[in-house]
Amino acid sequence: MAPSTSFSFFFLFFFTFQYTILVFSTTTTQQRFKEAPKFYNFPTCQTLQHHPNHTCPMNAVHVAMTLDVAYLRGSMAAIFSVLQHSSCPENVIFHFVSAASQPSSFATLNQTLTISFPYLNFRIYPFDDDAVSRLVSTSIRSALDTPLNYARSYLANILPRCVVRVVYLDSDLILVDDIAKLAATSLGDTEVLAAPEYCSADFSAYFTPSFWANPSLSLSFSNRTRPCYFNTGVMVIDLQRWREGDYTTAIEEWMELQKRMRIYELGSLPPFLLVFAGRIAAVDRRWNQHGLGGDNFRGLCRELHPGPVSLMHWSGKGKPWARLDANMPCPLDALWAPYDLLQTHYALQA
User: Fold this and answer.
1) Contact in structure between 286 and 310 (CB atoms under 8 Å)
2) 137 with 261: CB under 8 angstroms?
3) Keywords on this record (predicted)?
């Protein structure tokens, strides 16, 4: 190898190594976040009516999110956006679920939230991710295989029983509308959850050919009114109905079958579709403008769907903070940036 070529290779290796360290350091406990401003209720907001155990005010908006170090930057932006656009931010209670296998992260997460949101009404719950890991199958993207990604299936077991209705949110989204409107979604007489549906999507693509070739499996959709794809990153859930129907067990049964014979490829989403597709209450699509992170392989830039926007969701491989750090943002990432509370400047930014 010529000397100039050796030098170029060494420089490229050194630059890549340093960049990797820089990105890693901003996605671990070395992150430092700014304090968000305090947001106050409008004069028309009701005073919270406390339950006797003081954990479940009757008229609060309960929001559930998973929380870990890897996605903490996205979570902080999501929380900030919820509070900023809420008419009654002091009436929003956050329920964060964190991996019990990482107790050292618990203190870091709690401290970070307290410093950036001193007035935030929140609680962090441990999730037995080790117990769930036995049910997790590999999928098309490693990030989808994290046991904490399945915590949304266990909210009815984790949250206090006095929490009847909760809005579940992923960490890679921001709201630009009042979350109370989403929380007030009608669930009808029997529906357990509500979410925007996308019936134009190819529903069959979410399951393997072996699933559709087995009548005992594929006929599970036969008695439903047009099962459609829905994204589980934004859901309104009636936890009381969930507990009564024992839907966590129903989801686990499909996960156990997946371990024996491969019937899907996409992590925690297909079990939800198997249990709930065609049986959910409708939500306007403005509440989940999803797919902004591109597909699960390349994460290419995407545009918003036609129509109004209340929530932007960077589902898919590409995350706005990673693309901004790499100085290769997509146009819509600029809409996420104002909610970024990270103190350091974007990596490689001039």
Assistant:
1) yes
2) no
3) Glycoprotein, Glycosyltransferase, Membrane, Signal, Signal-anchor, Transferase, Transmembrane, Transmembrane helix
